[in-house]
Amino acid sequence: MDQLLSLLSENARLSTAQLAAMLNKTESEVSDQIAEYEKAGVIRGYKALVNWEKVDKNKASALIELRVSPKRDRGFDEIAGRIMQFEEVESVYLMSGGYDLAVKVHGKSMQDIAMFVMRRLSTLDSVLSTTTHFILTRYKDGGVILNPDEEKDERRSVFSD
Fold first, then answer.
1. Same domain, 26 and 77
2. The predicted structure's pLDDT at residue 158
3. What pLDDT, in 10s, does the model give residues 33-84?
4. Mean per-residue pLDDT for 120-129?
5. Residue with more model confidence, 156 or 86
């Protein structure tokens, strides 16, 4: 039923009847499989993808690269667990390459995010360094193009016509 997971990840609003028709299964089989996935923790939740730029002009996002010192016998899990507890944090990923953790955060403004990094994130005892990248515009998120037919925003142009 990996195809079921693919369909749900593309559109979690599909009804069990629609899913059953697409998978050539009964509604009961689809409902039972979804329940199993939820119980096993394979499906962790359902979420709407919101284009916040159209709703709230007072919202900022950033990707923060963290270099951290892992704890003996606990690796990166302990520091990742502490970071996950902050309400500003949306996502935490263990990375390969030049830094250890990638953290996606939200705030009311870039200033709020900068203060969060300075006062709360960078002061954690395992954090060696941070690099903050503010997200200026989301063109595509979660596989969805957010503004497919929107007029070009002149603020993003390098050359004027």
1. no
2. 57
3. 999 999 999 999 888 877 777 787 778 999 999 999 998 888 899 999 999 9
4. 95
5. 86
Encoded tokens for 48? 């709407």
HSE-up of residue 12 (Cα within 13 Å, Cβ side): 10
Distance CA 52, CA 59 (A): 7
CATH of the domain at 31: 1.10.10.10
DSSP the chain: -HHHHHHHHH-TT--HHHHHHHHT--HHHHHHHHHHHHHHTSS--------GGGT-SS-EEEEEEEEE-PBTTTBTHHHHHHHHTSTTEEEEEE--SS-SEEEEEEESSHHHHHHHIIIIITTSTTEEEEEEEEE---SEETTEES-TTPPPPGGG-SS--
For the chain, how far is it from start to end, CA to CA, in angstroms? 52
DSSP-derived letter for residue 54 is G
Domain that includes residue 105, residue range: 53-137
pLDDT at position 94, please? 97
Distance, CA of 2 to CA of 156 (rounded, Å): 40
